[in-house]
Design brief:
Pfam families: DUF4129 (PF13559), TgpA_N (PF11992), Transglut_core (PF01841). It comes from Natrinema pellirubrum (strain DSM 15624 / CIP 106293 / JCM 10476 / NCIMB 786 / 157). Keywords: Hydrolase, Membrane, Protease, Transmembrane, Transmembrane helix. This is Transglutaminase domain-containing protein. Helix 1 (about 20-50) runs antiparallel to helix 8 (about 180-200) and helix 7 packs antiparallel against helix 8. The longest helix has about 35 residues, at about 620-655. Strands 10-13-9-4-18-17 form a 6-stranded antiparallel β-sheet, with no helix packed on it. It has a 4-stranded antiparallel β-sheet with strand order 5-16-19-20. A 3-stranded antiparallel β-sheet has the order 3-7-6, with no helix packed on it. The protein contains 23 helices and 22 strands. Strand 6 (about 285-290) and strand 7 (about 290-295) form a beta hairpin. The protein is an alpha+beta fold and about 775 residues long.
Length: about 775
């Protein structure tokens, strides 16, 4: 097929063969549909890389594409929609059964489906779903199949609807970031545009409209995640200033971050009255992404009771009082009951950790009753491995990209251990004795646990606890990552003052018939020295927030009560210090590390760790991270800028604003000067626009001279005569158009006259009142 277009000005005929264009447009449209599909499948793939099932996901996507290709020529769209619906039904039935819904009630589980969908659409990230892997496998087939089926049948505009809906839903959950949203949106618009090109035989009559729609769609795709619902970030203030250990481990209610160099805040956070010292737990996290921890499941309102450990017979009570605004609820593990006014606005995670809906104010207090778990070594060794399914389903997760080397190294460390307890102690001892405590570290890329075990020489509690949790899981031992505070400073027989520098993270391992038991692989002696130095420095600097009235006169003895005693010492068969290690363990012999001095170790890349960056002194790695963040922001800004410019340009063309702007500018600016004859013609064209603005436009039937004569004749009697300079512009125009042409000087003179007239903004044919 071919078409012809004629140009009357030059009597030229251009023949365009559109057969090749149509074929190219078809392939480009299909390619865009595949890119759209890849944009949301990549988001799902990222989830399965964390929770498992990435191969199954890719297999399902491949089968869906193959089935759509085969059925495109065999079934009608309505039948294809039914096939997609059946596929989605099977997928979500599998999700429900994995989530514990009985197979016989799957078809009636509409309320749960609606509840899950609403939770996701209002900001619940997929990684916080308990059964995130099976949900992705159930979600993927329908949009992939239907989108590709419609594209294969040449219905490109319709094909972007299911894929766009899938991507939009993942934008709502917060899982689809800017790159995926932009790529998918661009591909969707491209599929529509190239499909239109194909159907029109090689001509897109509405290209400017498509560009405008593209820009608007991108803007919406980037803002649609701002919707009411459960936020992915903090619901209120996190503890500690940015850059402190507290702010890192309590980065958001549902997430706990892992960063590079951190600082310690000496300011008091809360006080505790308790008969027994303990670690004060504030967060429990079960899903490790490689560079942060995520807490799965949704919170529920506290109803007066919490789950008790299997063998708990004794309890310990505490009264916690906030000394500053507190967005957390510290408790001694394992809490079974809360008391106080705060409980009316308290939620509880599926892991049994309470949290206030609004921050506690200074002076507010609450009570906690916590169960005491039997942690005697002999009892834990005899606990066995008969773990409940609900425990193994949640607390054995490791990222799919964890290397076999990590597992091999873990096996070496636990080679001589016969029971889960002995393996836990072996891992705890190995980390404590082979890694140094330091707050000055560079955050590694990739899997932090893997990098810390195999490559790094030093780190702080986040690195130790993260690594031990993942090592236990590699050995099939359910474990979870816990954040909170160590006991703090004992200022009375039963009173403890807890500061920001006591922020800590540790590990809890599960033992059948006992429950969760604490392990702390972070070297205690070095950590205590660093914290003592930091508190002494704060007191010397007169920091009033570093003490309460009760603690101000209490000397610092360098010991943290929470690290000197361990409940796993009680049957006489073993003796342990505060970390579960033997007293003579070489890990107790540590060189003190000052958190304000640079270290010469594998985590520092330069002898001078401080570098000036935009007027701020930062660590070398922090400078690189700032540069990386700035680079990412710059790339995103450039992409958004390009989208905005395309949309504005297309919108201006669509509305004629661009042409009007060009004409307006042309009145006052002649532009580049080249050929004298053409410049003379352009000068008269500018004069025409100036006269049209003051009087009337030139008619088609009028010559230039007839136009000026008509305007002069129409002027009222008694008005000043016509500006004589107009004749010079007219004569230059006539010679350039109909005569022998003009030279450079004559053209420049005509241009100068028009410039003066435009600048003066005065009537040139006669003044009008």
């Amino acid at each position: 097929m071919s078409t012809e277009a004629s140009s009357h000005a030059g009597e030229r005929t251009v023949a365009i063969d559109t057969d090749g264009t149509v074929d190219v447009a078809r392939w480009l449209a299909l390619g865009c549909v595949l890119v759209l599909t890849a944009s949301y499948v990549s988001v799902l793939y990222g989830v399965t890389q964390v929770v498992g099932g990435s191969r199954s996901l890719l297999a399902i996507v491949g089968l869906s594409l193959a089935a759509a290709t085969i059925l495109a020529g065999l079934i009608r769209p309505r039948t294809a929609a039914m096939v997609a619906a059946v596929g989605a039904g099977i997928g979500f039935a599998y999700y429900f059964t994995s989530a514990g819904v009985e197979l016989g009630t799957v078809l009636t589980a509409t309320d749960q489906l609606v509840s899950d969908t609403v939770a996701l659409a209002t900001g619940l990230p997929l990684l916080r779903m308990v059964q995130a892997g099976t949900w992705t496998l159930g979600f993927a087939p329908a949009p992939v199949f239907l989108s590709w089926y419609l594209a294969a049948r040449g219905r490109y505009a319709a094909s972007v609807v299911p894929g766009g809906a899938a991507l939009g839903f993942l934008v709502l959950t917060g899982d689809a970031g800017t790159p995926a949203a932009l790529a998918g949106t661009l591909a969707a618009i491209g599929a529509v545009a190239f499909g239109d090109l194909r159907h029109r035989g090689g001509s897109i009559a509405q290209a400017d409209l498509l560009a405008v729609l593209f820009a608007v769609t991108v803007a919406l795709s980037l803002s649609v995640s701002v919707v009411p619902g459960e936020p992915t970030g903090p619901t209120h203030l996190t503890q500690g200033e940015p850059g402190t250990l507290e702010a890192t481990i309590d980065s958001a209610p549902q997430r706990s971050g892992i960063s590079g160099q951190v600082d310690l805040s000496p300011e008091v956070r809360f006080t505790v009255e308790s008969d027994d010292p303990a670690y004060w737990r504030t967060g429990v996290y079960d899903r490790f992404t490689g560079d942060e921890w995520v807490r799965t499941g949704q919170d529920e309102r506290y109803d007066g009771r919490l789950a008790s450990p299997p063998d708990s017979t004794e309890t310990v009570k505490q009264t916690v009082t906030a000394e500053t605004e507190l967005g957390i609820m510290p408790v001694a593990p394992q809490p079974v009951e809360l008391g106080g006014e705060i409980t009316r606005r308290t939620t509880v995670s599926r892991h049994g950790q309470p949290r206030p809906e609004t921050p506690l104010q200074p002076g507010e207090s609450y009570t906690v009753e916590s169960a005491v778990v039997d942690q005697r070594p002999a009892a834990l060794r005899a606990a066995g491995t008969d773990y409940p399914d609900r425990i193994t389903d949640t607390y054995l997760q490791t990222p799919e990209d964890t290397s076999s080397t990590f597992g091999d190294r873990t096996d070496e460390i636990t080679a001589g251990a016969d029971t889960p307890y002995d393996k836990a102690v072996a891992i705890e001892d190995a980390l404590e004795s082979t890694k140094r405590y330091s707050l000055e570290v560079s955050q590694p890329s990739g899997n932090v646990a893997e990098k810390f075990l195999l490559e790094m020489d030093a780190g702080y509690c986040v690195y130790f606890a993260t690594t031990m949790t993942q090592m236990l899981r590699e050995e099939g031992i359910p474990a979870r990552y816990v954040t909170g505070y160590t006991t703090g400073q004992q200022v009375d027989d039963d009173t403890y003052v807890v500061r920001g520098l006591d922020a800590h993270s540790w590990v809890e391992a599960y033992f059948p018939d006992h429950g969760w038991v604490r392990f702390d692989p972070t070297p205690s002696s070095t950590r205590s020295d660093v914290h003592t130095d930091r508190l002494q420095e704060a007191r010397a600097n007169g920091n009033d927030n570093a003490d309460t009235d009760e603690s101000a006169d209490v000397p610092i003895d360098g010991n943290d009560p929470g690290t000197d005693e361990d409940p796993r010492d009680g049957d006489g068969s073993d003796s342990f210090d505060g970390n579960g290690t033997e007293p003579n363990d070489p890990s107790d012999v540590q060189e003190p590390q000052n958190d304000t001095e640079p270290e010469d170790n594998a985590t520092n890349d330069t002898d001078d760790p401080e570098t000036s960056f935009n007027g701020t002194t930062v660590d070398g790695e922090d400078e690189r991270s700032w540069l990386e963040r700035l680079s990412a922001v710059a790339r995103e800004s450039v992409a958004l800028g390009v989208v905005a410019l395309v949309g504005l340009a297309a919108g201006a063309r669509r509305t004629g604003a661009l042409a009007r702007l060009r004409r307006e500018v042309g009145v006052y600016w002649h532009g580049p000067r080249r050929d004298p004859n053409r410049d003379a013609e352009r000068a008269f064209e500018r004069l025409e626009r100036l006269l049209a603005r003051q009087y009337r436009p030139r008619r088609r039937s009028e010559s230039g001279r007839a136009y000026l004569t008509a305007l002069a004749a129409a002027a009222d009697e008694g008005e000043p005569p016509t500006d004589p300079r107009l004749e010079r512009v007219l004569e230059a125009y006539e010679r350039a158009t109909y005569g022998g042409g003009v030279d450079r000087a004559e053209a420049d003179a005509a241009i100068a006259v028009v410039d003066d007239l435009a600048r003066d903004r005065l009537p040139v044919i006669g003044r009008r009142e």
